[in-house]
């Protein structure tokens, strides 16, 4: 391919507003172009990368007997009404109407669509298990699209769905899908972790996230420094350290505490640390009041609270709700004299606290010398806190470390969440109607460009792994006005093409410095420069990743490239 015939609008400087390294480089290298906030055109170089990623995905999906299909992007809203997600998904859902005033949405994911397909097409367990997938643009109306392709309103995704008659088959497919995803990312050349994930709006039980460590990542990966344990921050656990003391229990006492505004005020008033104060917070989960308690130096993990109740909506109670259910203001909430309809939930770390301080549920008063095992009634305990760096890993091996990561894929065991809602039933081996058991699997195809660019780039530009690079070789005749350079370039180009390599030849009438700068920016794995020594039949080969250069005779170029490519990742 001649570079003069391609649309590669390179820039010397990144446009204003580009913050992430990957965003800046892909804009400068002419891979993407913003059309509107959160929506990008994939220019020829980017689309070549995407196509190669998609081909790797297709190969691995074929290997586990998954069927590729393609669903509409515009979906009838009534399907999402059936599943209950039309109202609960949130403001990120694009909603629209057609000329007949019928409600539609732009698909952010396709559980409902595929489930309805199975409902209308499969009637017997004999047709199961079945795996379907597609590669398609998705749409989410992000409030703050940012970092280029990392968080956009339109993005390309591979989403797959499995349908089986029982959990045993689901487990097999889930494991096969995990292995297929690992193979995909290994082939791409991406550094990643598999971590315990949260199902979020998808619902379901077991969930694994694939996360690519990167400074720009919006997720926090929690991992052990001495084992394979890893989870996202919302799901991470730590090992409880046994208490070191058994103090004499003191009598509970009510203390006047006027003008208290936060836990720090309480700790200061009683001349103690925040870890000796219990923080009590009222939530509304599916319109029901839930009082949650953690130590004063801990943060309540909203996701863990929501997952405990398997609820679809969780929010902090407002001032009116706190007054209605607790009879006090937010600064004095506590687990005493509660109405019968209030559920009380406490973090495990609270169970063995001694002689601590808790809101009395009366304006202006706190209780001192509270001992949860003695003084609390009708309290359920669970892991409800957000872990901290340096705590013991839950498997007892090593301590927890934090790093930033980009979520690149996610797999879920959905169970019968959607099949029950949409009536996707089949006859089992006993002739009885049974809801199909489902799994959901997704890879952020366009997001992978950001992940790779964050991990594999330098001050000069992008460095694409060989399996997904837009071209294998960047061939640069330094001066296209020199007949000998053009002749040697043509000979080398033909030899490489004949041996199956993809070659981008920079035939532009540009200065050498411009060509080399653009080459580094574009990031093709190997560059071959045909310059002054062309008259002697000698060219320079440079490895983009290492910067290593060697001179070879033109007749040795193909063999040299073959050797170099074997060592590239």
From TrEMBL:
It catalyses: tRNA(Pro) + L-proline + ATP = L-prolyl-tRNA(Pro) + AMP + diphosphate. Residues 33-465 form the Aminoacyl-transfer RNA synthetases class-II family profile domain. InterPro entries: aa-tRNA-synt_IIb, aa-tRNA-synth_II, aa-tRNA-synth_II/BPL/LPL, Anticodon-bd, Anticodon-bd_dom_sf, Pro-tRNA-ligase_IIa, Pro-tRNA-synth_IIa_bac-type, Pro-tRNA-Synthase_IIa_type1. Its EC number is 6.1.1.15. Keywords: Aminoacyl-tRNA synthetase, ATP-binding, Cytoplasm, Ligase, Nucleotide-binding, Protein biosynthesis. One of its GO terms (molecular function) is proline-tRNA ligase activity. PROSITE patterns: AA_TRNA_LIGASE_II. It is an enzyme of class 6 (ligase). Its main location: cytoplasm. It is found in: Cytoplasm. The keyword Glycoprotein does not apply. It holds the Pfam family tRNA-synt_2b. Consists of three domains: the N-terminal catalytic domain, the editing domain and the C-terminal anticodon-binding domain. Homodimer. Belongs to the class-II aminoacyl-tRNA synthetase family. ProS type 1 subfamily. NCBIfam families: PRK09194.1, proS_fam_II. Catalyzes the attachment of proline to tRNA(Pro) in a two-step reaction: proline is first activated by ATP to form Pro-AMP and then transferred to the acceptor end of tRNA(Pro). As ProRS can inadvertently accommodate and process non-cognate amino acids such as alanine and cysteine, to avoid such errors it has two additional distinct editing activities against alanine. One activity is designated as 'pretransfer' editing and involves the tRNA(Pro)-independent hydrolysis of activated Ala-AMP. This is Proline--tRNA ligase. It comes from Apilactobacillus micheneri. The lineage of its organism: Bacteria, Bacillati, Bacillota, Bacilli, Lactobacillales.
């Amino acid at each position: 391919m001649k570079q003069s015939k391609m649309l590669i609008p390179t820039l010397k400087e990144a446009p204003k507003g580009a913050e992430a390294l990957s965003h800046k480089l892909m804009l400068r290298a002419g891979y993407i172009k913003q059309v509107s906030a959160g929506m990008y055109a994939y220019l020829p170089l980017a689309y070549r990368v995407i196509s190669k990623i998609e081909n790797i995905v297709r190969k691995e999906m074929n290997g586990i007997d998954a069927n590729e299909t393609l669903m509409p992007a515009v979906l009838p809203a009534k399907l999402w009404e059936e599943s209950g997600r039309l109202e609960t998904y949130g403001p990120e859902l694009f909603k629209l109407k057609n000329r007949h005033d019928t409600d539609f949405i732009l698909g952010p994911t396709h559980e409902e669509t595929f489930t309805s397909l199975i409902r209308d097409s499969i009637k017997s367990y004999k047709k199961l298990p079945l795996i379907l997938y597609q590669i398609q643009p998705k749409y989410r109306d992000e409030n703050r699209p940012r970092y280029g392709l990392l968080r956009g309103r339109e993005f390309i995704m591979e989403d797959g769905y499995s349908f089986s008659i029982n959990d045993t088959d689901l487990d097999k497919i889930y494991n096969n899908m995990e292995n297929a995803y690992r193979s995909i990312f290994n082939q791409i050349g991406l550094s990643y972790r598999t971590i315990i994930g949260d199902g979020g709006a998808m619902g379901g039980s077991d969930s694994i996230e694939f996360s690519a460590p990167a400074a720009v990542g919006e997720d926090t990966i929690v991992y052990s420094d001495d084992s394979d344990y890893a989870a996202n921050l919302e799901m991470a656990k730590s090992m409880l350290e046994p208490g070191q003391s058994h103090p004499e229990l003191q009598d509970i006492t009510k203390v006047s505490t006027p003008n208290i505004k936060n836990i720090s005020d309480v700790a200061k008033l009683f001349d103690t640390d925040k870890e000796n104060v219990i923080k009590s917070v009222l939530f509304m989960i599916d319109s029901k009041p839930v009082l949650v308690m953690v130590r004063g130096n801990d943060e309540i993990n909203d996701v863990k609270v929501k997952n405990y109740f398997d609820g679809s909506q969780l929010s902090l109670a407002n001032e009116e709700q706190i007054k209605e259910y607790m009879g006090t203001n937010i600064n004095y909430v506590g687990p005493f004299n509660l109405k019968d309809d209030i559920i009380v939930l406490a973090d495990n770390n609270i169970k063995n606290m001694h002689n601590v301080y808790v809101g009395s549920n009366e304006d202006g008063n706190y209780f001192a010398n509270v001992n949860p095992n003695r003084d609390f009634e009708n309290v359920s305990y669970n892991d409800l806190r957000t872990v901290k760096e340096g705590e013991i890993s839950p498997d007892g091996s090593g301590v927890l470390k934090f790093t930033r990561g980009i979520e690149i894929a996610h797999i879920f065991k959905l169970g019968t969440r959607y099949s029950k809602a949409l009536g996707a039933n089949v006859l089992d081996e006993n002739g009885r109607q049974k809801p199909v058991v489902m799994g959901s699997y997704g890879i952020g195809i366009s997001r992978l460009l950001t992940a790779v660019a964050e991990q594999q780039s330098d001050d000069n530009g992008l460095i694409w792994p060989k399996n997904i690079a837009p071209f294998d070789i960047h061939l640069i005749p330094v001066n296209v006005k020199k007949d000998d350079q053009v002749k040697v370039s043509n000979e080398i180009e033909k030899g490489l093409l004949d041996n199956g390599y993809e070659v981008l030849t920079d035939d532009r009438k540009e200065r050498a410095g411009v060509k080399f700068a653009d080459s580094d920016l574009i990031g093709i794995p190997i560059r071959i420069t045909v310059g002054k020594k062309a008259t002697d039949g000698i060219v320079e080969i440079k490895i983009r990743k290492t910067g290593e250069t060697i001179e070879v005779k033109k007749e040795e170029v193909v063999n040299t490239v073959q050797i170099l490519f074997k060592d590239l990742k």
